[in-house]
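Late entry, written up from scratch paper. The run itself happened at the end of the previous shift, but nothing got recorded in the book at the time, so transcribing now.
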Amino acid sequence: MLPDDPTQNLSIAACPVPSEQLPLNEYEDLKESWFFRWATLERSRYVSKIIWVWLWSWAIAAPIAAASFPFEKYPAKFLLTSSGGGILLLGLVLIRLYLGWSYISSRLMDANVFYEESGWYDGQTWIKPAEVLARDRLVASYQIQPILKQMQVTFAVLAGLWGIGAIIWQLLN
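Output as recorded:
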């Protein structure tokens, strides 16, 4: 936390949770990580990252699609199959991104913090004081919920594209 952060005066002085396991610190770490930061980018940069991942996914799916539908014989089926495979791989990447943000959101929203003192075998639970809970819930509501909503829209668009591809596939047969 920043030194001039007014939330430092909250009653977390007696908090037994290790610093790296505090939900707010986990949020800050996630926000700064290379991969998870993608979801926090402005919309145009976010979309460019999504397209970039889809292109790489398409490059992986295209040779597999070409084995079943050579481009020379079945150009439309090749394009649909390789694009659908790219969307599938992109979907897996986005699911990982969504699950990370969803996990942090739930840790911030929960009134109890489960933490480990020294290993997996000695877990404890800390009940957040009211002011810490209010702060964490504000962060989850105003910082993370818009990210999750944006990702849900992305999933809906990908599902729509997948559905359009399925309809076109049926028309080709």
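The helical segments are 23-32, 43-68, 75-109, 130-172.
(Scratch paper discarded after transcription.)
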